[in-house]
Amino acid sequence: MADAPLVLGIETSCDETGVGIVRGHTLLANTIASSMDEHARFGGVVPEVASRAHLEAMTPTVEAALAQAGLRFSDIDAVAVTAGPGLAGALLVGVAAAKAYALGLGVPLYGVNHLAAHVAVDQLEHGPLPKPCIAMLVSGGHSSLLLVPDVAKDVISLGSTVDDAAGEAFDKVARVLGLPFPGGPHIDRAAAAGSGTAVSFPRGKIDDGTLDFSFSGLKTAVARWVEAREAAGESIHVPDVAASFQEAVVDVLTRKALQACRKYDVHDLLIGGGVAANSRLRALAQERCDAAGVRLRVPRPGLCTDNGAMVAALGSDLVAAGISPSALEIPADSSLPITTVHV
């Protein structure tokens, strides 16, 4: 892949300013500036704060990526950027910056789908994707099951959350348990000292015949359980509650993912998105995939959370597939559907 173009990727869909550089499926740089600490005191991401943080971080993050890769601006052959879905103001910062870099460098621009990029990034670690594969994307904003014949051209939605996404439920349950934001990593750590069978929490839509998800009822069940014990003056063992909640989430996720594999006769499962960094999800998915004869691919945790490398990876796929570049007039689309890989 030495002759493959160098692609600069920019990601600003939420609270991380991510910039990555790839050549083909070789990762050369992946730099991230997070505004998470600025949101923590509010217990969630504040869109206006995120947008301002992206503005301040964009130039130094791009320069840091170039330095990490040992490159100059003149070496870049194409620019890719997350055009959606995500927070409208945050997306706008990234899209505007990418247009400026593409125009200034005289290179093509590729507006890409954030969710498809979470699929494409695995290639930077494990090589080309099997065609087709099933992808399960789990994050603070999305819980989706996808059939992916070709990540550059064809992504088909099989199911999604009907209410709270898995990562959103982690954040809300963490708040109930008095754990910091973002909730996912803190629940994962707390659960390590608890029992996943200590409390029997509900599994939403587990056997409803669809490939959709629901975590709002589970979140409410945890809150009501905690409230009842507190009202009764009982102590709450946070690790047990965290582990039992986590077990309910990953049980549903892995069951639905393997249902999709069986239904579509696909033997390769990819898990991506921020929640894919969860240790119990990774372990249970591997256990159940091994039993079902399904090959599992999960990127390392640093590539699961939002990053510029994933955007560059999908941009590189689009270039390799001969897809026409985006127009400089492309919008930032906060509700871009997963079936639209490239805008």
UniProtKB/TrEMBL annotation:
Catalytic activity annotation: L-threonylcarbamoyladenylate + adenosine(37) in tRNA = N(6)-L-threonylcarbamoyladenosine(37) in tRNA + AMP + H(+)
Q: Which PROSITE patterns match?
A: GLYCOPROTEASE
The primary site where this protein sits is cytoplasm
Q: Where in the cell is it found?
A: Cytoplasm
Annotated substrate binding sites: 137-141, 171, 184, 188, 278
Q: Name one Pfam family in it.
A: TsaD
Main EC class of this protein?
A: transferase
Which CDD domains does its entry note?
ASKHA_NBD_TsaD_bac (cd24133)
Q: Where does Fe cation bind?
A: 114, 118, 306
Cofactor(s) for this protein?
A: Fe(2+)
Q: How is the cofactor bound?
A: Binds 1 Fe(2+) ion per subunit.
- Give the matching InterPro entries: ATPase_NBD (IPR043129), Gcp-like_dom (IPR000905), KAE1/TsaD (IPR017861), Peptidase_M22_CS (IPR017860), TsaD (IPR022450)
Q: Name one GO biological process term.
A: tRNA threonylcarbamoyladenosine modification
Q: Where is the Gcp-like domain?
A: 27-312
UniProt keywords (A-Z) are:
Acyltransferase, Cytoplasm, Iron, Metal-binding, Transferase, tRNA processing
Q: Which Gene3D superfamilies match?
A: 3.30.420.40
* A single cellular component GO annotation: cytoplasm
What SUPFAM superfamilies does the database record attribute to this sequence? Actin-like ATPase domain
This entry's Enzyme Commission designation comes to 2.3.1.234
> Which molecular function terms from Gene Ontology are attached?
iron ion binding; tRNA N(6)-L-threonylcarbamoyladenine synthase activity
UniProt family annotation: Belongs to the KAE1 / TsaD family.
What is the recorded function of this protein according to its Swiss-Prot or TrEMBL entry?
Answer: Required for the formation of a threonylcarbamoyl group on adenosine at position 37 (t(6)A37) in tRNAs that read codons beginning with adenine. Is involved in the transfer of the threonylcarbamoyl moiety of threonylcarbamoyl-AMP (TC-AMP) to the N6 group of A37, together with TsaE and TsaB. TsaD likely plays a direct catalytic role in this reaction.
This protein is called tRNA N6-adenosine threonylcarbamoyltransferase
Q: What lineage, starting at the top, does this entry show?
A: Bacteria, Bacillati, Actinomycetota, Actinomycetes, Streptosporangiales
Q: Which gene encodes it?
A: tsaD
